[in-house]
Q: What sequence folds into this?
């Protein structure tokens, strides 16, 4: 029996609806290309996302005046804002780094919070053009510990400095 | 056999009502009863959707892999396993997308940026694109059994990404924080009603997933039956022509 597709249709009959197989093929190709880009980003950026302040000049990839990402805790009472810029001190494992950021950091930027600054060291100052606030995995209700709040905040920096 | 209308049954309708009630309770707890976070303020409320979404995606992809494994190892190789795997894959992709979008919103408000190429975000993006590819591979054509075979193999490979995504924050340095509940220290880092709201979100989203899978796999069964019927009709027509 011949089951090959018909080419001629009967008078008045609707032509059979054809499924477009090119679309899934296109999506598979796009997924492969996208996957390649993501893997490249993973190998170049994600694996070693930042250097800690105490690793500058010590650890491979955290040396010299190259562009890098530095992680540390914003030192208490170190934030100063002037001429549209912000300066503060990053602290980690008893090592400090002065940061000059060209703008007002976004997110929940504040003292005693860990941040990652993007930039490069110029004359001993880390000139940053991007700040990311690194939130911890602790979630504390605003009104739960009001009595001890002041003491906890005072102790927060020493805990976060690692 | 119970009388059905569309892809629903009385059981799925009851489940649907429970899901709606649970989601409404979640909205009340997440938006109203639970307190703001000391650092994040109201931004913390995004967590009640973000975390359950990725949790549900993990379950969906896990179920897709399980059903694919059963299909490949089974003697009768029922296509029902493949359809549940496909339905789970589709819904999993949807939930990963929700997780990526809500996470991006949270990131903008907390980190100060929508996206960074850190280990968690990059591996999650890879997970998303892998399962988009899985869904595309399911549509490549051929018979139902060919579709089931190739997509089952892919689902079993893709599930290996889940541990990579989950443990990315402990394996590598990441901007994304470590898990607050299922962390290596086994210490819960959430206060009272925040934890309850999150737990409620996990249960509600899991039940929503079950409801969606039940409907979607039935819709897939109807699609398969429709295409099979079209082939049967064509063969019968040719037989009649040959006999005439």
A:
């Amino acid at each position: 029996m011949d089951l090959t597709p018909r080419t001629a249709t009967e008078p008045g009959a609707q032509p059979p609806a054809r499924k477009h197989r090119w679309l899934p093929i296109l999506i598979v190709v796009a997924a492969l290309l996208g996957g390649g880009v993501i893997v490249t980003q993973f190998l170049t950026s994600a694996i070693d996302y930042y250097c800690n302040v105490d690793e500058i000049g010590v650890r491979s990839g955290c040396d010299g005046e190259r562009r890098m990402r530095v992680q540390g805790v914003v030192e208490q009472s170190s934030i100063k804002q002037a001429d549209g810029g912000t300066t503060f001190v990053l602290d980690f494992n008893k090592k400090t780094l002065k940061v000059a950021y060209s703008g007002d950091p976004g997110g929940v930027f504040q003292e005693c919070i860990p941040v990652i600054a993007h930039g490069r060291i110029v004359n001993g100052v880390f000139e940053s053009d991007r700040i990311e606030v690194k939130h911890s995995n602790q979630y504390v209700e605003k009104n739960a510990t009001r009595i001890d709040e002041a003491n906890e905040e005072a102790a927060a920096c020493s805990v976060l400095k690692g | 056999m119970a009388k059905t209308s569309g892809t629903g049954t009385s059981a799925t309708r009851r489940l649907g009502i429970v899901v709606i009630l649970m989601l409404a309770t979640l909205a009340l707890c997440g938006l109203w009863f639970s307190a703001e976070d000391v650092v994040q303020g109201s931004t913390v409320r995004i967590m009640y959707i973000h975390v359950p979404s990725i949790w549900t995606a993990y379950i969906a992809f896990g179920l897709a892999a399980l059903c694919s494994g059963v299909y490949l190892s089974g003697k009768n190789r029922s296509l029902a396993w493949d359809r549940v795997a496909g339905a789970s894959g589709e819904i999993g992709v949807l939930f990963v997308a929700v997780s990526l979008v809500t996470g991006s919103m949270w990131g903008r408000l907390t980190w100060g940026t929508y996206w960074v190429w850190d280990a968690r975000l990059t591996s999650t993006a890879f997970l998303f694109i892998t399962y988009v590819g899985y869904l595309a591979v399911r549509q490549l054509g051929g018979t139902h059994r060919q579709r089931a075979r190739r997509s089952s193999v892919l689902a079993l490979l893709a599930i290996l990404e889940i541990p990579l995504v989950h443990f990315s924050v402990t394996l590598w340095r990441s901007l994304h924080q470590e898990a607050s509940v299922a962390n290596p220290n086994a210490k819960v880092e959430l206060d009272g009603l925040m934890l309850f709201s999150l737990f409620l979100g996990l249960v509600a989203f899991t039940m929503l997933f079950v409801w969606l899978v039940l409907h979607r796999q039935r819709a897939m069964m109807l699609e398969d039956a429709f295409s099979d019927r079209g082939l049967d009709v064509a063969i019968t027509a040719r037989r009649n022509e040959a006999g005439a």
